[in-house]
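Figure 3 (text version): structure tokens given as input.
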């Protein structure tokens, strides 16, 4: 595989940390365009709950181009192999116009899949298998995965910490019972990864403030509209915490204060899982420069880029 020569600048971090704002400011400084690595922002109609905030891509009257947002209908399936293909197509397009690439988002799995392309990502989606798994809780999914016979001579060790990832792991392990791994031929990236963080108390306050803002902006109405247009309840659960908990509220499972409390705690826990995943990336050899999101992150990223030249 041929290396993509221009270094990719990656801005990652837990939810509500201000990644997009930093990436947009950097893009203006570096004459760059932004590729989103967010597993939910690829979907149309998932706007408030995924925090797209497309207005944030304007800075000083200039619109910073972005990629891999709103690229697929909400009733379609998008998977990591498709993301890889779309990602490298976007990189080639941006660099063909002489611009830098900035990657921004909080889905560590997606970022890792293009920095160190996984051999399992080309395993196709099995819609009939998924249909039978979508309503199962995490312990049952983990149990099903363990019951599938081990794959001989395989180092397949998936992340089983969420429903979505467990379903994908079952899908891959089932496929490999009778098939070999499809080959990938993605380019090798040169990159610098910067992770933003703040003390936990500040991070949690940011999450809580943003949740209140999203509810005021119409998050519940967004979920009602998705249901009205034919999105199934199990699909909403698949789209993440905001949609899962708002659906439960609309189904009468708890009142509004309980929705706010439960969803707040769940997002706090999600942010911790994101950080855990980033630390896991470091353990497998991906160098990450950690920055305080409150201490001139744009200037510090620019200084690190300059020092790397």
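Below: residues designed for each position.
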């Amino acid at each position: 595989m041929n290396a993509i020569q221009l270094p990719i600048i990656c801005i990652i971090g837990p939810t509500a940390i201000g990644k997009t704002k930093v990436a947009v400011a950097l893009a203006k400084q570096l004459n760059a365009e932004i590729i989103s690595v967010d597993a939910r922002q690829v979907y149309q109609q998932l706007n408030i709950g995924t925090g797209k905030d497309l207005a944030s891509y304007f800075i000083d009257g200039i619109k910073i181009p972005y990629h891999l947002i709103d690229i697929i209908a909400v009733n379609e399936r998008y998977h990591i192999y498709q993301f890889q293909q779309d990602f490298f197509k976007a990189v080639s397009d941006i660099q063909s116009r002489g611009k830098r690439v900035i990657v921004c988002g909080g889905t560590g799995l997606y970022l890792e899949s293009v920095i160190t392309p996984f051999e399992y990502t080309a395993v196709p989606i099995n819609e009939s298998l998924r249909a039978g798994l979508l309503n199962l809780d995490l312990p049952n999914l983990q149990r099903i995965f363990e019951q599938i016979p081990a794959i001989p001579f395989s180092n397949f060790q998936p992340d089983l910490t969420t429903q979505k990832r467990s379903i994908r792991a079952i899908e891959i392990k089932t496929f490999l019972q009778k098939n070999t791994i499809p080959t990938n031929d993605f380019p090798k990236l040169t990159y610098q990864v910067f992770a933003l963080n703040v003390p936990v108390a500040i991070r949690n306050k940011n999450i809580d403030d943003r949740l209140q803002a999203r509810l005021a902006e119409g998050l519940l109405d967004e979920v009602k509209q998705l249901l009205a247009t034919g999105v199934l309840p199990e699909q909403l659960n698949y789209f993440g915490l905001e949609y899962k908990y708002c659906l439960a509220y609309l189904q009468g499972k708890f009142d509004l204060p309980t929705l706010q409390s439960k969803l707040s705690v769940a997002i706090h826990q999600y942010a911790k899982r994101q950080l855990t995943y980033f630390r896991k990336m470091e353990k497998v050899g991906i160098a990450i420069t950690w920055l305080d999101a409150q201490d001139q992150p744009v200037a510090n990223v620019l200084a690190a880029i300059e020092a790397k030249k």
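Residues 256-283 form the longest helix (28 residues).
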